[in-house]
Amino acid sequence: MALMTFKHELIFTLVISFAIFHMVIAGDPDILSDFIVPPNITFINSNFFTFTGMRIVLRAPPPTAFKVSKASIAEFPALTGQSVSFAVLQFPAGSVNPPHTHPRSAELLFLLDGSLQVGFVDTTNKLFTQTLHAGDLFVFPKGLVHYQYNSDLNLPAIAVSAFGSANAGTVSVPNTVFNTSIDDGILAKSFKTDIATIQKIQAGLAPKA
Questions:
Q1: Has UniProt tagged this entry with the keyword Signal (predicted)?
Q2: H/E segment holding residue 160
């Protein structure tokens, strides 16, 4: 019974979160038609405007690692030109969404359950942090490095995020810096350390087999 009540509350809060999309600054150009139909689609009906991919969030068991489920232009083509997208963020106890940026949109996060430590760094290197509780909202300005962390070692947290772009983009700071082709020597000089330390960090970020 408690599980059903939680699911009903989750559905209700997901619906509410859609209503806050217009509070997020749009980053997409205006379109000159009601909507855009991809070239590979010749017939549309109401199904084109419906996305069912979030059903798994309600049906699947809780994840064992941080998980983000997206409804962006890649998953939901009807969002093309509509300047909106959506994500559900699931945080097991003690998990983190590492520092990252969204180059094309601000992010408005709505915490549904649990607690989160969140923060972002502005262009003057000032850090803004907050501890969020269920029902709180927090905005991460467009393009700035930010993170979310569930510091509770016993309880999970779940949040939804609205974006003012159908394709906000995500640039992971750890992966972009250490898992690309930037020369190890350049990284060592940039971080004022040695190549062995850089390679150790890279090994830690490598996908697990």
A1: yes
A2: strand 157-163
The model carries a pTM of: 0.83
- 146 is an annotated ligand-binding site residue: yes
Q: What is the token pair recorded at 152?
A: 């509770």
Q: Where in the chain is the domain with CATH 2.60.120.10?
A: 1-169
Residue 154 is assigned to a ligand binding site: no
Do residues 111 and 135 lie in contact, with contact meaning Cβ atoms separated by under 8 Å?
Answer: yes
pLDDT tens across the length of the chain (209 residues): 455 566 666 666 665 555 544 444 446 788 888 999 988 888 999 999 999 999 999 899 999 999 999 999 999 999 999 999 999 999 999 999 999 999 999 999 999 999 999 999 999 999 999 999 999 999 999 999 999 999 999 999 999 999 999 999 999 999 999 998 899 999 999 999 999 999 999 999 887 76
| All residues at 6 or more sequence positions from 81 whose CB lies less than 8 Å from its CB, including other chains | 28, 31, 33, 35, 36, 166
* Of residues 81, 37, 89, 43, the one with CA closest to residue 63: 89
Longest C-alpha distance within the chain, in Å?
59
The encoded tokens of residue 21 equal 């999309």
Residue 184: count other Cβ atoms within 10 Å of its Cβ. 15
Residue 8 marked in a binding site: no
